[in-house]
Structure formats: structure tokens, C-alpha cells
Design goal:
The chain is an all-alpha fold. Helix 2 packs across helix 3.
Length: about 110
């Protein structure tokens, strides 16, 4: 009887260990997939933007990409942000107030009017 109980406990213990290992593997995989999904667009852009045309084009693209990433980090919709900032600049926005146009200071004209 004792041998039977020992065998059952050993089997249950092996089963629990196998489930723990499988759970760990699945969670680790999920964590890696999340990270991979997050960095994939960066890697694709980096590869695609090797063809910016010139060193100057590459530098300008780096500025635009940095603004887009900063806008996203500040919960600002990138297209609306760039559209508004470029419109303001082309309409003679004062250079002394450029800090107001940085993504963390920017206020959507729609939100400002409300």
C-alpha cells in the first residue's frame, strides 16, 4: 500500500512538474512574441530607410521618425500632429514658440477648441 501511494505521489509530482515547465515555456514564448512584435516595425523601417537617397535625406528622415515615435509615446496621433505642425509652420508660426509644437506640449486644435 505504501509503495502504491509513493508511486501515485511520484507520478503526480512528475505531472505537476511537466505542467509547470510547459506553462513557463508558453509564458516565456508569449513574452518574446510581445517584444518581437514591438520591435519588428523598427527593424523593418531601418531596413527600408537605407534607401533615403542621400546622407541629408537620411538625416531628415531620422528627424521625422523621431518625431513620430515621440508623438506615439505621448499618446498623440502622429498624422494629426504632423499635419497640424506643418500647417502652423507654413502659416508663419513664431519661431520663438517652437517649444509649444513639441509632442509633449502640443494641443490638438480640435481639443483646444472644445
Amino acid at each position: 500500500m505504501a509503495a502504491l501511494l509513493r508511486g501515485l505521489l511520484a507520478g503526480a509530482s512528475r505531472g505537476l512538474e511537466a505542467q509547470r515547465l510547459e506553462s513557463t515555456r508558453v509564458l516565456r514564448g508569449a513574452r518574446h512574441n510581445t517584444v518581437e512584435r514591438a520591435i519588428r516595425p523598427i527593424a523593418l523601417r531601418r531596413k527600408n530607410h537605407l534607401f533615403a537617397g542621400s546622407d541629408g535625406g537620411t538625416a531628415r528622415w531620422a528627424v521625422v521618425a523621431s518625431l513620430l515615435a515621440t508623438a506615439k509615446l505621448n499618446d498623440v496621433e502622429p498624422f494629426a500632429y504632423l499635419k497640424d505642425v506643418l500647417e502652423r509652420l507654413s502659416n508663419g508660426y513664431p519661431m520663438s514658440r517652437l517649444d509649444d509644437l513639441l509632442p509633449w506640449n502640443w494641443a490638438s486644435p480640435v481639443a483646444a477648441a472644445a
